[in-house]
Design goal:
Length: about 90
């Protein structure tokens, strides 16, 4: 039997900060892209409610999909990446 250790709200904020910083660094603005607004909404819900969230958002203007996992278990990595389907 394995026990899950859930992230606190503070830990969830810390985990998503690099994602938000990278979007800012790449100058990708939510005001200009519905897909980024959807991603940020999922991040906000994750922070507030602490529910594990799998992300798959098509981002056709950039010819990529946004994939990731906002994990609640501290043993699982929180990640988001832009992937190009070939």
């Amino acid at each position: 039997m394995s026990l899950q250790t859930y992230r606190t709200k503070e830990q969830r904020v810390k985990e998503v900060k690099p994602i938000i910083n990278k979007l800012s660094e790449l100058n990708i603005k939510a005001a200009e892209h519905e897909e980024i607004r959807e991603l940020l909404h999922k991040i906000q819900v994750y922070i507030q409610q602490g529910e594990r969230t799998v992300i798959h958002i098509p981002f056709p203007i950039a010819d990529v999909d946004i994939h990731g996992v906002l994990a609640t278990d501290v043993k699982e990595r929180v990640w988001v990446k832009f992937t190009k389907d070939d």
